[in-house]
Design goal:
Structural class: alpha/beta
Number of strands: 10
CATH architecture of one domain: 3-Layer(aba) Sandwich
Distance between the termini: 67 Å
Radius of gyration: 37 Å
CATH topology of one domain: Rossmann fold
CATH superfamily of one domain: P-loop containing nucleotide triphosphate hydrolases
CATH class of one domain: Alpha Beta
Shape: elongated
Number of helices: 22
Length: 614
């Protein structure tokens, strides 16, 4: 089970980071964890019953060994010896079968709980706002979904079952020991700390050496990755650092070798000491038993009893050692659930309203009323955005890089919510419109076209699950991508690869446009939708986009003047406000922000395209 945010220590020890991140144990946390276990209480009850049976059956081989010595061997009864041996074999077999049954039930419970939690987590994350995915690391999200939730299995089948199993083993073994001979039982129990204390002491020492060794290995791997990569090796050669980098590598290698030798020496001496203490326990029991029989004439003791006691004492060591580490296992289990619950507790500020409105979206008017927005309170991005896009019109948004153009349009489908003011569609605040209905009626093509790992057809059907092949082909023809698709060996069943990496940027963009065409939205938002296309491809698609925008309310963020000139109005965003609004000629006459953009960006593009045509 991974420690939250760092490497996990060995059993019995918490790392400094684990201690630092130790979760606070509260009734609410325990109750929440139990809520995932309670649906499976019949199965848990069955597991506990099986564990108790296993603990009881596990005593029999040791007890039978005593009877073999006292009754069969001393009594020279061959038939009894055979019966006892067969009985011992039967109990060992039964113990193994019971263990398999316990393992299967545990695995079933843990996998069902993982199934429930993963479903809940995926559903929760699917409905998180867009801001969550822009601020959280993708690796962290995957770790919560996969590693952390899968780690619950070790809590169920490991920690929880181990506590019950070890407790049952210790209790049944102690009862058996004191039933046979309380004096030998006391001697045997006194020996147990002599086995546990060295284990913990040497184990902690070895863990420190292993941690230091791993840290140095991480440092060495960093050196290897940096200096033996294509760019790194070139840098080393250009600055003639071969000898210095070699010396640094040798020094690290020397430290790693020294730490590895120390750890190995520590391990060997540990095994020697443990071997001595392991033999000391039985020797003390044999001595005590022999002294009681020989010197004290204790007739209640037999050689078989002494033999059985030694076997049972050895059976106590592992369970007792494990129970002494409960606090470590318990802490790691709580930390794991805490990390999972941290994600579950993240609130989604963009929620679908109850009984959300469904206004008529045909020729819908879009209105921004003194809208303000910021990703963080100390850095306002939009301060007073106020404009109206009449139904069926196409407005273009231009502005300097980083002025908030994309943020403005992202407020319409509620990828973000306004911090002040409001955005309305057909006269209704978007926060009051049924969220699914709102997004179903909005088509958005972004600058970065994203495709799922699947076929071209699969990606197109994201827009409309029940689309016919004729509809798909018509959309692709409109987006000027049909000819490319049918030229592929697998046609519409062509695999696009992860994130569409098997396609060029322009091909991905045209499939993205075809997907939006297939959706047939009432409101169209194009966020530099043709940025990945060359001039020929853009010209082919531009007419198609104009046809699509006809009869729809459209907002276009564009970097090419040819697109901007066809807009009904041009809005210039700067410093968080709509600085200017008007037609191309009107804005040029104002000698303001738009004319500056025109002089610095658009005119160069026009001159470049004019030169290419010549």
């Amino acid at each position: 089970m991974p420690a939250p945010g760092g490497r996990q220590g060995p059993r019995g020890f918490l790392t400094d980071e684990e201690k630092k991140n130790m979760p606070k144990v509260t009734g609410a946390l325990l109750k929440r964890i139990l809520s995932y276990l309670l649906p499976y209480w019949p199965q848990f009850l069955l597991v506990f019953v099986v564990i108790l049976i296993s603990a009881a059956v596990g005593l029999l081989p040791s007890i039978i060994t005593g009877k073999i010595v006292d009754q069969a061997l001393v009594g020279k009864d061959l038939k009894l010896l055979v019966r006892l041996l067969l009985l011992a074999f039967a109990t060992l077999t039964a113990s193994q079968v019971i263990g398999v049954l316990e393992s299967y039930i545990n695995a079933w419970i843990s996998q069902r709980i993982i199934f429930d939690m993963k479903n809940q987590m995926y559903d929760h994350l699917q409905h998180m706002p867009h801001s969550f995915f822009t601020s959280e690391k993708q690796g962290d999200i995957i770790t919560r979904m996969d590693t952390d939730i899968s780690g619950v299995s070790s809590v169920i089948s490991g920690t929880l079952s181990s506590i019950v199993s070890n407790t049952a083993t210790v209790i049944t073994t102690l009862i058996a020991l004191f039933t046979m001979s309380w004096r030998l039982a006391v001697v045997g129990i006194v020996v147990i700390p002599l086995l546990i204390v060295p284990t913990r002491s040497v184990g902690q020492s070895r863990w420190k050496l292993l941690s230091q060794n791993q840290a140095k290995k991480d440092e060495m791997n960093q050196v290897i990755n940096e200096t033996l990569s294509v760019s790194g090796s070139m840098l080393v050669k250009l600055f003639t650092r071969e000898e210095k980098e070699y010396a640094r590598f040798v020094a690290l290698n020397e430290e790693i070798t020294g730490l590895a030798l120390k750890e190995q020496r520590s391990g060997k001496w540990f095994r020697v000491v443990m071997g001595m203490f392991t033999q000391l326990g039985p020797l003390l029991i044999y001595f005590t038993g022999g002294w009681l029989i020989i010197s004290r004439g204790d007739t209640s003791l037999t050689v078989g009893t002494i033999t059985a006691t030694v076997a049972l004492i050895n059976r106590l060591y592992m369970p007792v050692s494990s129970l002494l580490n409960i606090h470590v296992d318990f802490t790691r289990s709580l930390a794991l659930f805490t990390r999972i619950f941290d994600y579950f507790d993240m609130e989604n500020p963009i929620k679908a309203p109850e009984n959300g409105k469904k206004p008529d979206m045909d020729l819908a008017e879009i209105r921004y009323e003194h809208v303000s927005f910021s990703y963080s309170p100390e850095k306002p991005l939009l301060t007073d955005i106020d404009f109206t896009v009449p139904g069926g019109k196409m407005y273009a948004i231009v502005g300097p890089s980083g002025s908030g153009k994309s943020t403005v349009v992202n407020l319409i489908p509620r990828l973000y919510d306004v911090c002040g003011g409001r955005v309305t569609v057909s006269g209704v605040d978007v926060r009051d419109i049924d969220l699914k209905y709102l997004r179903e009626n909005i088509g958005m093509v972004t600058q970065e076209a994203y495709l799922f790992n699947g076929t071209i057809k699969d990606n197109l059907l994201c827009a409309k699950d029940d689309a016919t092949m004729d509809e798909i082909v018509a959309a692709c023809k409109t987006a000027s991508i049909h000819d490319f698709i049918i030229s592929q060996p697998d046609g519409y069943d062509t695999e696009v690869g992860n994130r569409g990496l098997k396609l060029s940027g322009g091909e991905k963009q045209r499939i993205s446009i075809a997907r939006t065409i297939l959706k047939d939205p009432r409101i169209l938002i194009l966020d530099e939708a043709t940025s990945a296309l060359d001039s020929i491809s853009e010209n082919a698609i531009q007419d198609a986009l104009e046809a699509i925008m006809a009869g729809r309310t459209s907002i276009v963020i564009a970097h090419r003047l040819s697109t901007i000139l066809k807009a009904d109005k041009i809005m210039v965003v700067k410093d968080g406000v709509i600085a200017e609004i008007g037609s191309h000629d009107e804005l040029l006459e104002k000698n303001g922000v738009y004319k500056e953009l025109y002089e610095t960006q658009f005119r160069k593009v026009l001159e470049y395209e004019s030169e290419r045509k010549q």
